[in-house]
Amino acid sequence: MTANDMKLVVVGAAGRMGQALIRVIHETDGVTLHAAVQREGSPFIGKDAGELAGVGTLGVPVTADPLQAFLDAEGVLDFTTPATSVAFSILAAQARIVHVIGTTGCSIEDEEKFKAAGRHARLVKSGNMSLGVNLLGVLVAQAAKALPAAGWDIEILEMHHKHKVDAPSGTALLLGEAAARGRGIDLASQSVRVRDGHTGARPTGTIGFATLRGGSVVGDHSVVLAGEGELVTLSHSARDRSIFARGAVAAALWARDKKPGHYSMLDVLGLS
Ligand code: NAD
User: Fold this and answer.
1) Mutate to test the pocket of ligand 1, among 104, 106, 160 (most ligand atoms within 8 A of CB)
2) DSSP characters over 165-217
3) Virtual CA dihedral for 154, 101, 251, 36, nearest 10 degrees?
4) pLDDT-derived band of residue 272, with 50, 70 and 90 as boundaries?
5) Which of 177, 175, 154, 157 is nearest to 227 (CA)?
6) What is the C-alpha to C-alpha distance for residues 187 and 178, in angstroms, rounded to an integer?
């Protein structure tokens, strides 16, 4: 640890991603774990964050007090719930620090609040923080542009572990947005999120989603471009949560000297 290390707070510290973030901060040069926050009433309050994440004692007890945790911090890494991320975005804006948000399942109203927070905080938000998926998004936009909607149908298939609470995944929606961008259409009005019963034939130009849940799958995504007599499949398989945690830490370091704003992983990775 050096004096110039970026001081990061992990909120949702006891969660699957929270623990992965603590491990990655511990092994990454240039960053240090400043505080670890869990929700009020969590059995992990007071426990050492390093022990919780399996990297040994770090001398950082888990707290339920975000105000105290944000004091003197330079960035917040947040993979929690939509309501929690909205609340923390207000605190991060007040503290004028970096807020990296990986939380998925956020509503349009939540996104408006994040945009407002980005007037004061340096906010980086993405449904997927991995280099591979963000590159995949760029490739999907290219493919969707090159293969005309009249002859090529786009379907997005995803599978995640059985504990995941939102669907389609943030990554599936990110890939859907990329496909819609390539096609020059609006995803919200063109997406088919569920099919059940007598649905009729597939409307031309729509983007379909299919969701699978089970076991411990970290995150598998395929974008299928289906033409007459041929299929193009672009896919990504996440084997380990550390890919998202490494991306989040890289995003915090990238945003450290940026102006306040609402950024995405495409900005961080130079893919925008
Ligand atoms: P999880 O349920 O294991 O962890 C969430 C944690 O947040 C829990 O420990 C919970 O107690 C804590 N929490 C909830 N409210 C809180 C509050 N008010 N204050 C402090 N802590 C609070 O879930 P997870 O698998 O770690 O995923 C979390 C989120 O991150 C989900 O939305 C998931 O889809 C998303 N995710 C995003 C990416 C990405 O790259 N963007 C990757 C993986 C997961």
Assistant:
1) 104
2) -SSS-HHHHHHHHHHHHHHT--HHHHEE----SS--SPPTT-EEEEEEE-TT-
3) -140
4) confident
5) 154
6) 9
Ligand 1 binding pocket (C-beta < 6 A) is 11-12, 14-18, 37-39, 42, 79-81, 84, 102-105, 126-129, 170, 244
Q: Phi and psi (nearest 5°) for 226?
A: -105, 115
67: amino acid identity, one letter: L
Which one of 34, 113, 125, 160 is the catalytic residue? 160
Position 1 pLDDT exceeds 80:
no
In this model, does residue 84 exceed pLDDT 80? Answer: yes
Instruction: Measure 149 CA to ligand 1 centroid, in angstroms.
Output: 36
Mutate to test the pocket of ligand 1, among 9, 17, 128, 249 (most ligand atoms within 8 A of CB): 17
CATH topology of domain 131-238: Dihydrodipicolinate Reductase; domain 2 (3.30.360)
What would the pLDDT profile of 53-68 be if each residue is shown by its tens digit? 999 999 999 999 999 9
- Whether 104 and 170 have beta carbons less than 8 Å apart is answered as yes
**Domain 6-125+241-269, CATH:** 3.40.50.720
> Which residue type occupies 231?
L
What are the structural domain ranges in the chain?
6-125+241-269, 131-238
Residue type, 123: L
The string of pLDDT tens digits covering residues 40-50 is 999 999 999 99
Task: Using the mean position of ligand 1's atoms as its centre, give its distance from the Cα of residue 183 in Å.
Answer: 32
The pair of three-digit structure tokens given for residue 144, joined into one six-digit string: 């969707």
C-alpha 7, offset from chain centre: 21
* Ligand 1 nearest atom to the CA of residue 127, by list position: 41
